[in-house]
Amino acid sequence: MRTTLYSRLKPEYKKIIEEKSEQYPACARSVIDSLQETMYHRLTICEITDLAILLSRYGRSDNNWWTGKDLFNTEDDIA
């Protein structure tokens, strides 16, 4: 059984979300809720954009936007 995206989120990004949750509680909660999915491709473009903005990850490559491998520890090379 696959684990959630939140559980596979790299620790440095979890820390950023925790820190920003004090200033932006609704946004952080929304991002955490969306990361309860098990597959990155099931996230909406809006959810991915909210995550990238919250993490200040603006310069992501096309491949990273498509796969999410820059944000998550992977299982069998799948984010």
Brief overview:
The protein has 79 residues and is mainly α.
Provide the β-strand percentage band: under 5%
- Helix segment count? 5
* Unreliable runs: none
Q: Any idea what the radius of gyration is?
A: 12 Å
How many domains make up the 3D coordinates? 1
**Which descriptor suits the 3D outline?**
globular
H and E order: HHHHH
Give the number of DSSP strands. Answer: 0
Distance linking N and C termini = 14 Å
Share in helix: 40-55%
Provide the residue-averaged pLDDT. 92
Structural class call reads mainly alpha
**Biggest β-sheet description:** none
Fold topology:
Blueprint: H1 5-8, H2 11-20, H3 25-34, H4 45-54, H5 62-67
Helix pairs in contact: 3-4
Description of the molecule:
With 79 residues, the protein is mainly alpha-helical. The protein has one domain (5-65). 51% of the residues lie in helices and 0% in strands. The protein is built from 5 helices and no strands. It has helices at 5-8, 11-20, 25-34, 45-54, 62-67. It is globular, with a radius of gyration of 12 Å. It starts with a helix and ends in a 12-residue tail after the last helix. The mean pLDDT is 92.
